[in-house]
Amino acid sequence: MALKQGDKIGILGGGQLAQLLIKAANKLGLKTLVFDPNEDSPAFNIATEFICEPFSNQKALESFSKKSDIVTYEFENIPLATIDIITPHCKVSPNREALKIGQNRLLEKAFINQLGINTARYSQISSKKELLEFCKLTASKSIIKTTTSGYDGKGQVVIEPGKINTAAIEIIENTECIVEEFQEFHSEASIIASRGESGSVLTYDSGANLHKDGILINTTVPSKLPKELEIEMALIAGKILNNLDYIGVMGIEFFVTSQGLILNEFAPRVHNSGHWTLDGCLINQFEQHIRAISGWPLGSTNRHSNIVMTNIIGEKITTDIKENQSIYSYGKKEIRAGRKMGHINTIHE
Ligand code: AMP
After folding, report:
1. Would you tell me which of 155, 157, 194, 334 could form a disulfide with 146, CB atoms 3.0–4.6 Å apart?
2. Mean pLDDT over all residues of the chain?
């Protein structure tokens, strides 16, 4: 059933993505309730209500779900046990299966491959012994990643063939990992896709992404990729969303290589590389997500402007902005290296 004016959306996670979802929900006449264990959560400042408790607090989660008309999440590392406490009381969108696959690189790659979509070749590594064996045998440059909980390049180290790397050993000593073949890509790209309750899928134009040390620096649209690749990304997105019976917005990242598109990962949520839609489209990714999970019809994903979205990372928000720039500050108190403080959308020719 579609949400109506004044209904409440529960959001797990209180970072900048939640903040931007709240702004979209407010615009549509919906209320919000944010749940996050961190008392400095940027989204607390603008949510209708918030609950600051650990994701394991059953009583607080039950109260959260009973107060919400639909629950969604802003990041994929929400424990599945948290979702299981909520579901008897309130529907969660995107669904549990999408979250389960999206938070585990092994499940994700197996799922993607089974749909006939290419990923980097990979293997599971569970111990230091297996890692040392792998390093001895592999002839190609690889990258080790934690199977779960990685984001913004955290928990990742490049391994040169034949070399044993202490940082990689440190990672494997603490957690399950995968190693995947390092991709000598021409560029990186992503597509933001949405699926509504009716099963209709709409994608935004793909963006060209630049990362440094695993963190997104900027996204440019149009991506200037060949039309065939843009279409292939949209078809891949449709396949994934339909297979998961997904409702909401998803970000899907690719490497563009001489062998074609290699899917890196998908995020079952709104995505940093979709922030350009805030100034490039009538209906941005945040509003689209709210519309989808509320059971409303999806909005147009047409792009009316060319945009470069630039993240503001580990530095103060600048006031030195130009006429053609729109700035977003997440209102974070503490500036830390690698921390996303805001972003700027620049309209270009
Ligand atoms: P991820 O956390 O998997 O999204 O990785 C973050 C970034 O690290 C990517 O956007 C790439 O820039 C880089 N990266 C990750 N995996 C690979 C790979 N297999 N080959 C080359 N670069 C990679």
Report:
1. 155
2. 95
Q: Is the dihedral of CA 12, 13, 17, 22 positive or negative?
A: positive
Q: What is the DSSP string of 172-201?
A: HHHS-EEEEEPP--SEEEEEEEEE-TT--E
Mean pLDDT of 39-43: 96
Distances from the Cα of 202 to the Cαs of 109, 192, 212, 242, in angstroms? 23, 9, 29, 12
- Residue whose CA is closest, atom 11 of ligand 1? 214
The fold for domain 121-181 equals Dna Ligase; domain 1 (3.30.1490)
Closest of 323, 324, 319 to residue 342, by C-alpha: 319
Q: Which ligand 1 atom lies nearest to the CA of residue 180? A: 19
The string of pLDDT tens digits covering residues 186-198 is: 999 999 999 999 9
Minimum CA distance residue for ligand 1 atom 13: 214
Phi-psi region of 29 (alpha: psi -120 to 50; beta: other; left: phi over 0): left
CATH class of this structure's domain 187-348: alpha beta
In short, whether 211's Cβ falls inside 6 Å of ligand 1 is yes
Mind listing the pLDDT tens digit for each residue in 281-313? 999 999 999 999 999 999 999 999 999 999 999
| Domain ranges across the chain | 8-92, 121-181, 187-348
pLDDT for residue 29:
98
Count Cβ atoms below 10 Å from residue 333 Cβ, excluding itself. Answer: 6
Nearest CA to ligand 1 atom 7: 214
Ligand 1 atom with the smallest distance to the CA of 182 is 20
233 vs 191, 251, 278, CA distance in Å? 7, 11, 21
CA of 62 relative to ligand 1 center, distance in Å: 37
Structure tokens at 175: 């957690």
What is the CATH architecture assignment of 8-92? Answer: 3-Layer(aba) Sandwich (3.40)
Q: What amino acid is encoded at 83 in this protein?
A: I
